[in-house]
Amino acid sequence: MIDEPAGRHAGDERPADFGFTSTTVGQKRRMVRGVFDSVARRYDLMNDLLSGGVHRLWKDAMMDWLAPRPGQHLLDVAGGTGDIAFRFIDRARRNAGSAAAQLPPARVTVCDLTPAMLEVGRDRAVDRGILDGIDWVAGNAEVLPVRSASVDVYTIAFGIRNVADIPAALAEARRVLKPGGRFMCLEFSQVQAPVLDRLYDLYSFKVLPQVGRVVARDAASYRYLAESIRKFPSADRFAGMIADAGFRQVKVRLLSGGIAALHSAWNV
């Protein structure tokens, strides 16, 4: 079932950044939804084109560290097209081995701000023959439509930087996790290598918008996505924000020279 996201706090006038543009929290939420409304149908294709398929390796690394198990309930936030959900269900089954048939399957609730992204994910699930074990819910990461202490795992991949109020989203992540639940975030970060960082800037601000213009017919949305990466906190600073939200055992793994980072923490 796909529900429309609530309009709660839509008029929030606190300052926020939409890439390099100054705006308000309420306006950023509307603008982010507009971006993903525009790119939803070509989102996965663009991920493959723009990363050369490397985003798949990063998501596999996320699953390696997460080690999904049968019976776990995952809440995947900003996961509209289902990439993380499908991997989680498959990996939980594989990790169970020959005992998989005797154990309760893993299940996933996918929550995304943009119904158009959820429609793509639901269609992909049907194409894969996944008809059970996934719920599709439209909602805001800052005000999740999920009961407190109800999920075992919370993930968000390439979504936290688009959230208007990141501390609120982290507080919500902790609220919905059971005691002992796992938080994991995969997000772009700041490149560490001195030469690679200049090449990455050139690629992000010159190549990425042009590919977006040709393939997704939307250069502006991909320019925003490049800007949002530059505005996002460093891996160490974001780790501090996770700890400030009350999580413990916060750990960071940099991927591909710092192009992306995995953050893991526990609700204890």
From TrEMBL:
Keywords: Menaquinone biosynthesis, Methyltransferase, S-adenosyl-L-methionine, Transferase, Ubiquinone biosynthesis. Residues 1-22 are annotated as: Disordered. Residues 1-16 have a biased composition (Basic and acidic residues). Pathway: Cofactor biosynthesis; ubiquinone biosynthesis; Quinol/quinone metabolism; menaquinone biosynthesis; menaquinol from 1,4-dihydroxy-2-naphthoate: step 2/2. S-adenosyl-L-methionine binds at residues 81, 112, 140-141. Methyltransferase required for the conversion of demethylmenaquinol (DMKH2) to menaquinol (MKH2) and the conversion of 2-polyprenyl-6-methoxy-1,4-benzoquinol (DDMQH2) to 2-polyprenyl-3-methyl-6-methoxy-1,4-benzoquinol (DMQH2). Belongs to the class I-like SAM-binding methyltransferase superfamily. MenG/UbiE family. This is Ubiquinone/menaquinone biosynthesis C-methyltransferase UbiE. It comes from Tistrella mobilis (strain KA081020-065).
